[in-house]
Amino acid sequence: MTQDVSLSPIPKTGLAIITGSANWGLAFPEDVGMPGVRVLARDLAFETPYGVSENWKLLEFDASITAEGRTRQALCMYSHGNPRDHIDHSCHRRSFWVLMESGVTHVVACSTVGAVNKAIQPGDMVVNADIIELTQTPYSLLPGRQRFDCSGKQIVCPHCADILAETARAIWPPACRVHGIEQGLVAAHAYGPRLTSPAEALAFRSMGADVINHSIAPEATLSREIGACFVPCAFVTAGFNDYMDRSRGSLLQEDVLPSLSMLASRVALETAARIPSDSACSCSSLKSPQPAERYERY
Ligand SMILES: [Zn+2]
Q1: 280 Cα to the center of ligand 1, angstroms
Q2: 59 alpha carbon to ligand 1 midpoint, in Å?
């Protein structure tokens, strides 16, 4: 109940980690026990114009593990598990308003995916290059109706994606693969929480998707809308044959998640620490102000 929550001022940070199904079953980052990562505060709640946003953690990366050798702070929350007691897809607008106010320039989002490309197997990590979400997000944060143009190109930051893939390849199990952004793979977004039906999986596949993700499009779109770089840290828990097997009620391969959630969590933390605050990419320029006559004259 939000009326009993004590609200905090939004701390200034440059970095955000949005957790998800990739971290299920873990207190993130406490259970990862990664040296150089501290939880400064948890259960933070912030006021936004769209309501209170709860369950935030404030993390600190020690100077010894960051790209620039300086202490950095990051905001962290379990976005599509927030609020905790009911499904509310508008939570992303509150979350990213918090990130915008915080000054976040880089967002790492963790999730699991199902593969509809037969060459991508359970246990693989997929750093997709593009997304499909035909409604975009109904919960836009762009101020004004026509004040900004947001490009749909380079929706995943190539610079952050390379850092993430390099980090993952150093620790990911050798029997599984890390598919980097250079492969040009496409993630379709389905809000859930129901898992994708066999017919939907085929539809997404025929539209050009390689994987299906329940938590990527609002995160990617809202990152663009606040001018931040976005990179997904996602691994596969169901393959094409799992979607198509109508004789089995379950979809996910049950042994994949527990064995890889700790590793994926570590990849996310190491990647966040290694992303420089002034990364050499053009993501922030892909949100551009429009000439005043486009919204002042009508
Ligand atoms: Zn970028």
Answers
A1: 7
A2: 22
CA 81 to chain centre: 13
Span from the CA of 154 to the centroid of ligand 1 (angstroms): 8
What is d(CA 235, CA 171) in angstroms, rounded to the nearest whole number? 14
* CA nearest neighbour of 44 among 87, 18, 6, 78: 6
The token duo for 145 is: 């109706």
Least confident piece of the model among 42-46, 99-103, 294-298: 294-298
| CB neighbour list of residue 285: distance below 8 Å, 6 or more residues apart | none
- Under 8 Å between Cβ of 27 and 39: no
One-character DSSP codes across 40-90: EEEEEEEEETTEEEEEEEEEEE-GGGSTTSS-EEEEEEEGGG-SSSS--TT
Domain spans of the chain?
2-277
Quote the pTM value: 0.94
d(CA 289, CA 149): 6
Distance from Cα 282 to the centre of ligand 1, integer Å: 6
Closest CA to 59 of 108, 7, 116, 132: 108
- In angstroms, what is the span from residue 44 Cα to ligand 1's centroid? 28
Q: How far is the CA of 109 from the centre of ligand 1 (A)?
A: 14
Q: pLDDT tens-digit profile of 104-154?
A: 999 999 999 999 999 999 999 999 999 999 887 788 998 877 789 999 999
Cα(117)–Cα(150) distance, rounded to whole angstroms? Answer: 29
Domain 2-277, classified CATH 2.60.120.10, yes or no: no
- The CA-to-CA distance between both ends of the chain, in Å, stands at 43
Q: Which of 176, 205, 170 is nearest to 190 (CA)?
A: 205
How far is ligand 1, taken at its centre, from the CA of residue 239, in Å? 30
